[in-house]
């Protein structure tokens, strides 16, 4: 059976995809940027707009990380405002389970689901570092198993709150027009090693019952958490085969949790460069990558792995001859941390082998190793390759991360989406009113 492609838009904001130097790159903070990207996504019948979240400004070598100099607006505030400018587009936000509390988060998402008439989604994430925790009362470090255990309990608790208010327990007085609440409405009580709360939930059951649940993470614990509780999982796999392997793995875990394969959607993040021809698109993509990774940016990224000051190195020269520093505090603090590299020495060996084999300078190497999944080509080439990934079970759709804010998806919406629609693999209208309906997910009981 031919599968339908799901598409979503990531507001690029503060990440190494954004080309800050392009004159078409506008504000990362002004609301007009959010409304433009959301409007493009809804015009192209995307499932949802996704906002990442940073709970602390990252630092590199004691200074604010380059990607955070514009700041980070609050996710709930932006999504609530976008609820009033969109009609069908889902509104997905990353909200941390390590430093927030279930009652507050459940209340905010239930409110957003009401404001948007059933379009809210929650990307449940954890935070691993004490650096971020310094912004919070209960700061500090949680080992990975405890982070995911807290996340699991957090989601369970929030779900109990969402489900605590039954619609049939809200009665209307026909004579006065007043609403009379049953004493049990909204009542909850939860006690475990992480949370001990009781009371009455303040928000009536929302249109979706509860938000669509997303999860991002490639670790064993992350995959298992997604298989047990998430409606969709975000990935970063950059090849067709890697995507197929990941897809098969997470789908195979669902049966153990009493779930069907269709109950978890797989969304890799990807960038797209559309040109008049394949050659034109490849040329544009090369220019974009050079803009994304300047000489100073390449040295800064290399410092994250080597964990030491490399400012004296020439970005157009070779890698340092000495090995990374594996002891001491990380030179980069926050979510841009070198934790992404795992074994520093092993990663450095791999980079040296690649650089020697392909005769790459530092900058050329960083351009190579930081590349994400990309579709590059003419509109027909991009449409064909995206459809191939979905039909061959490497994904159920894609989260598009444009390199320009806010117009980075305009070309895709105008030139690629119509071709997907002509192939019969992408909708021409939204099939439902809620995000859960548009994603084809089963309703919440």
UniProtKB/TrEMBL annotation:
**Domain called Luciferase-like: residue spans:** 27-391
Q: Does the keyword Transcription regulation apply?
A: no
List, alphabetically, the InterPro entries matched: Diverse_substr_monoxygenases, Luciferase-like_dom, Luciferase-like_sf, NTA_MOA
Output the CDD domains linked to this UniProt entry: Nitrilotriacetate_monoxgenase
UniProt keywords, alphabetically: Flavoprotein, FMN, Monooxygenase, Oxidoreductase
Q: Looking at the keywords, is Transmembrane helix present? A: no
Question: NCBIfam families from the entry?
Answer: FMN_nitrolo (TIGR03860)
Concerning its family, UniProt says: Belongs to the NtaA/SnaA/DszA monooxygenase family.
**Protein name (database record):** NtaA/DmoA family FMN-dependent monooxygenase
Q: Which organism is it from?
A: Saccharopolyspora ipomoeae
């Amino acid at each position: 059976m031919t599968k339908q492609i799901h598409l979503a838009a990531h507001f690029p904001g503060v990440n190494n995809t954004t080309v800050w130097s392009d004159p078409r790159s506008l504000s990362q903070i002004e609301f007009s940027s959010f409304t433009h990207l959301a409007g493009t996504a809804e015009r192209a019948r995307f499932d949802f707009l996704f906002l990442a979240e940073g709970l602390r400004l990252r630092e590199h070598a004691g200074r604010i990380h380059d990607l955070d100099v514009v700041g980070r607006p609050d996710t709930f505030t932006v999504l609530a405002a976008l609820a009033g400018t969109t009609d069908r587009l889902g509104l997905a936000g990353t909200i941390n389970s390590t430093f927030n509390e279930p009652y507050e988060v459940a209340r905010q998402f239930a409110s957003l689901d009401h404001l948007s008439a059933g379009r809210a989604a929650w990307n449940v994430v954890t935070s691993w570092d004490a650096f971020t925790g310094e912004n919070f009362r209960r700061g500090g470090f949680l080992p990975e198993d405890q982070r995911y255990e807290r996340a699991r309990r957090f989601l369970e608790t929030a779900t109990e709150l969402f489900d605590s208010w039954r619609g049939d327990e809200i009665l209307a007085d026909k004579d006065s027009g007043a609403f009379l609440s049953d004493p049990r409405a909204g009542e909850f009580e939860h006690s475990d090693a992480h949370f001990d709360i009781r009371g009455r939930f303040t928000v009536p059951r929302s249109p979706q019952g509860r938000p669509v649940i997303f999860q991002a993470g490639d670790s064993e614990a992350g995959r298992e958490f997604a298989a047990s509780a998430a409606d969709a999982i975000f990935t970063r796999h950059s090849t067709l085969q890697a995507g197929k392997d990941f897809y098969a793995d997470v789908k195979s875990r669902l049966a153990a949790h009493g779930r069907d394969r269709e109950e978890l959607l797989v969304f890799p993040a990807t960038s797209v460069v559309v040109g008049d021809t394949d050659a034109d698109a490849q040329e544009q993509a090369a220019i974009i990558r050079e803009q994304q990774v300047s000489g100073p940016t390449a040295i800064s990224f290399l410092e994250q792995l080597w964990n030491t000051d490399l400012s004296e190195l020439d970005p157009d020269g070779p890698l340092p001859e000495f090995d990374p520093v594996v002891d001491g505090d990380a030179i980069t603090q926050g979510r841009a941390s070198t934790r992404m590299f795992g074994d520093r020495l092993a990663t450095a060996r791999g980079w040296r082998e690649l650089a020697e084999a392909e005769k790459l300078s530092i900058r050329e190497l960083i351009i190579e190793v930081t590349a994400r999944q990309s579709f590059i080509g003419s509109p027909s080439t991009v449409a064909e390759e995206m459809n191939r990934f979905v039909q061959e079970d490497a994904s159920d759709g894609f989260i598009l991360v444009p390199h320009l804010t806010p117009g980075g998806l305009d070309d895709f919406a105008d030139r690629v989406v119509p071709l997907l629609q002509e192939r019969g693999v992408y909708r021409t209208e939204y099939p439902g009113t809620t995000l859960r309906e548009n994603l084809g997910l089963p309703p919440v009981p």
